[in-house]
Amino acid sequence: MLNNTLNKILFKNNVIKKTAILAVVTSLFLVGCGNDQNFKREVDGNEDYLKSPALKPLIIPEGTKIPAESNEFFVNTTEVRGDLGKKLDIRPPTLPISTIQEAFAIYNNGSVTFNVPLSSNVWEQIPNSLNKRNILIASHDSNTIQTGKSFMVRADEEQAVEASYSIKRQLLGDTETITISITSLTRGTENLISQPVEVQRYIVGLFNDIMNDVAPDSMRIVPAKAQDKNDEEKNKPESKKTATSVSDEDQK
């Protein structure tokens, strides 16, 4: 009896120790995944295709008839130079998203242009949005905001960039056109200002952050009618059909 009890105690202790070890290992693994952002920008899979030999020219025996050439099956053999392997960035380009009604935004040639009604008071809210992100304002007047160099942190980047921005507005009747452009962009000692994808990512990223801050309450709160409808759907019986069939069975 005593031996059985001791064996059970030892068994439980071993299980607890193994469980604790697995928990620690799992937590370390999750922490590692949380710090490693490469999965957001790399292709994962077999890379044997990189070792594939070049295509050989087709040899056609004499006297053999071949079909006429078709552009639908044309193979472009022009050499394309670019990033390869695990350093290939597969992230899609960032697009501007407006959160103000009767407003529109476009990205073109290194800048975001945003047209919005004056009644939305977007321009007046931009300084607070910049301060919220620790972006220093070097100069500010009624139509221009120049920022100092500030660090911009993204979850999908291992190293922050240092960027400065120019924000200008032009009054057009009862609307204002706001243009956000970038004046400097570096990551460590690397100058990124000549890389269109990086420029777009950090200009549009800032614009979308500002849009998130200036979004009206109607964009943040579920409308009452929609909320009531959702509550009705949750509390609704299984279906009218089921209720009808049940009542018919009761009548029988």
Q: How would you sum up this structure, described in words?
A:
The structure is a single chain. The chain is α+β, with helices and mostly antiparallel strands. The chain has a domain at 104-220: Alpha-D-Glucose-1,6-Bisphosphate, Chain A, domain 4, CATH 3.30.530.50. It contains six helices and eight strands; from the N terminus they run αββαββββββαααα. The N and C termini lie far apart (64 Å). This is Outer membrane protein assembly factor BamC. Residues 221-252 are annotated as: Disordered. Residues 226-241 have a biased composition (Basic and acidic residues).
Properties at a glance:
252 residues, alpha+beta, eight-stranded antiparallel β-sheet, Alpha-D-Glucose-1,6-Bisphosphate, Chain A, domain 4, 6 helices
Task: Give the SSE order as H and E letters.
Answer: HEEHEEEEEEHHHH
State Rg: 31 Å
Number of strands: 8
At the first level of CATH, the class of the domain at 104-220 is Alpha Beta
The CATH architecture of the domain at 104-220 can be named as 2-Layer Sandwich
Calculate the terminal CA-CA distance, rounded to whole Å: 64 Å
The CATH topology of the domain at 104-220 comes to Alpha-D-Glucose-1,6-Bisphosphate, Chain A, domain 4
Helix content: 25-40%
Tell me the fraction of residues in β-strands, as a range.
15-25%
Low-confidence stretches: 27-33, 239-247
Give me the number of helical elements: 6
| Mean pLDDT across every amino acid position | 78
Class derived from helix and strand content: alpha+beta
Shape: extended
* Main β-sheet description: 8 strands, antiparallel
